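Subject: sequence -> structure tokens, single chain

Hey, anyone have a minute? Need the predicted structure for the following. Not urgent.
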Amino acid sequence: MNVIINNLNFLKRKSARVLMSGAWAAICLSIFSAIIVGQNRQLQSIDEKRYKPQLIVQTGHSDTVFSVVFSPDGKVLASGSVDKTIKLWNVETGQELRTLSGHGARVNTVVFSPDGKVLASGSSDHLIKLWNVETGEELKNIEGHSDWVFSVKFSPDGKVLASGSRDKTVKLWNIETGREIKTLTGHTEGVMSIVFAPDGRTLASGGADKNIKSWNVASGQEIKSFAEPNGYIVSVAFSPNGKTVASGVWSHDHTIRLRDIETGLEILTLRGRSSQILSVAFSPDGRRLASGVGFFGDVQLWNIETGQAPKILKGSLGRRANLCRWSSLQSESM
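Reply:
Had a minute. Here:
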């Protein structure tokens, strides 16, 4: 991938955002209210003749951005913020398409349905909302959690929504009716991150109780629990083949662990630059893993086969890289 995330230290205005038109494949957030995508000129691998990205800086959110997600076709980006709003952006032009308002507290998580027609959001107001992407209309207001909603994910078939909350539960919801299907209990602290396996049969969750749990979606039964002794789980991600789960951990040993989802055995340990691994995300082909580093603000791009991080996207000291996302546009040269 020749065009990637720009340095996280060049934004000084709290309300700035940066979007780029052209071929690009990853995104991360700083502690500013900024969406940062661009060209890292510190990397010698950039092909200036092939990629000449245009950077667009405009006013956006009025407070910190906590979550971003690409639409399935890569044409729209959604962002959720402490300012209680969700914004939809045209990826190619950087223009704001619309603002979705309705939450009473910060928006912690946003996710598109597989067909890209519906957006789900979870908030510190304990609510989950479903939105019509085309019109911006609020479709459903889902109540059930008793504390902050940290993570929401659609099942691959788009029929079920899963949510993880500070109330220590994972809930499964029927998208058509907005009704709760079942509650998955077992975590003893807040559930920070959830993710469906590609086949939709298994769900993984990571919590502040230092455990990763795998669940049978149909039955709601816990399959396995993997302990992380050195810190709480901030982010979990499935590999595209569904066999491996990666975990980002806030711990003193700077590690990202990749485990076999069936056995729980550790396959690979990656050592980052900081104790705060705030986000992990597999590339669409499963050969790379992006990790967002808390204290340094860096993004590390790992080669899964070698366990090395040949590309480090330098950030700024104290500027957290809260979240990493890959778009569907991935260069073979990465």
